[in-house]
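New here. Your pick:
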Amino acid sequence: MSTQADPIIHEQILSSLDSFQELFCTGVSRALQETKFANRMHIAPRRLEELSRREVAAFQRFIQQRDAQEVMEHGKQLAFEGLGHSSIINVTAALRKVWLNVPTAQANVFPAVLTVTDEYVGSLLEGYIDGCEQEVRHEQQLTQAAYLRSLEHSTDHADSDPR
């Protein structure tokens, strides 16, 4: 069932998300708090709250616009900001689980809710993985450049050694 095919269901999903935005933010925030030490960089507690609100806003935009590329860019940005693997997995689980507590996610809406959530999560994870891979490649380039400078430096000193 596609939410694009049925505008009434699409509106019900948006309405549910609007009505229970705090519930979504709390779920995502809790997911981030549980894994705050698993991140690649230290993220301050108030920043975690900001990330949770940003995540819910990105999810809401996706429901409205269905722009997978924008979600992938968002996932990539989360990787660049240092969000750890455990954190991103917890966030995606929280986005799925929170619908279980939303009363309007009834039988007629629930399949569409799961479909749109899975589409979002797939794009988010794809972008996150791409961002992590870019970070690894960047670190490898820096390491290689440092190694080559070190090698060049030691070769220069060996050539100038009067022994």
